[in-house]
Amino acid sequence: MNTAVKQSPEPPDASAPAATPSAAAYRNLVMATIGFALTFWAWNLIAPMSGDYKDRLELSSFQQSFLVAVPVLVGSLGRIPVGALTDKYGAKLMFPLVSALTIVPVLLLIPAKNSYGAMIAVGFLLGLGGTTFAIGVPLVNSWFPPAKRGFALGVFGMGMGGVALSGFFTPRIAKHGDNLPFLVVAGALVVFALLSAVLISDHPGRKVPTDTLVHRLGEAGKLRVTWELSALYAIGFGGIVAFGVYLPTYLKTWYEMSPTEAGTKAAGFALVTVVFRPIGGWLSDRIHPALVTSGALLLAALMAVVQAFEPPLNPIGTIALLAMAAGLGTASGSVFALVSQVTPQPKVGSVTGIVGAMGGLGGFVPPLVMGAIYSAKDSYAIGFMLLSDLALAGCVYAYGRMRNVQRDG
Predict the structure, then answer these.
(1) Which pLDDT tens digit goes with each residue over 74-99?
(2) pTM of the predicted model over 0.85
(3) One-letter-per-residue 3-state SS of 160-175
(4) How far is CA 284 from CA 7, 52, 78, 149, 272, in A?
């Protein structure tokens, strides 16, 4: 007689997302993407109007570039603590809170518009809108299984289309009233903050870290892959941010466009990056994301070389800029597909914060460099060649080193 006791199967891991994403997963993905887009619109409110601020406040090219770059710097560095706080308190608290707090600097842009010092101060506070990236990534990552994360994170990344929304709509809304864009964005943030408090939910199996914020950031900083991915993201997403905030100035200065026309062209560039970000994630679910990253950065490098020769905008310049946008958008999607695969779930927020910060910092420096180079040389060629060199270096590193990083599950 067989007296062996049949062992019961191990209970499923409650912290792991279901193999098939649930309705709650898609609800959180939609809400996170909308929130990301709105806060990014707020984050980028100064850039489309920078030409007007330059004329009104009589700014130099460098002063204009610095004004545009300040929110980028603060929003980038702010992702580090916000990502760690999201690991601790969850996106259900952090998303509505950060969205609501962003309303304050948006409205402060109204009384600050006639003072450069006041604009710099408000731009510093406006950087808060750029931190929501570090809230959305761990939220989406927790709800989707590894095989679906690349595409899901790519869809969330489409929220960076808030830059395109800002470039297209902000100058047009401003034609109906100088203060109207800020009132519209503030109103949209109020609505989202209220809805997100109800509709966003953390994964029921979310593991809450018990150690301190400083310790969590230190542990994330010890991971080699954190800094490798930071460098790649600084090139890919940094290039997107840099062009998103500086392209209107570049087109207006070099190609002598009106602010509205330059904003429209810049919005087209941003739209291409938005479309190709989920494509980068989708490809990374099927091909090693390092290969996707390498190919995308190679395309961006080649197109930067073309633009360095200052071709006419139609058609060569337009083709080069849009192809560059496709490469940078694809790379930004594939890099975060890799982040989601190699980072332990409890550390995703902290690692995302660091990688996202480096990506944003990658967008802080180029506008300053481009403005300084143009002031000194009356040319943007050197700036595009520097971008090409960086993208090519990232291409080589992604292919030579990051292919050896093991895929998760």
Answers:
(1) 888 898 889 888 888 999 999 999 99
(2) no
(3) HHHHHHHHHHHHHHHC
(4) 39, 41, 28, 9, 18
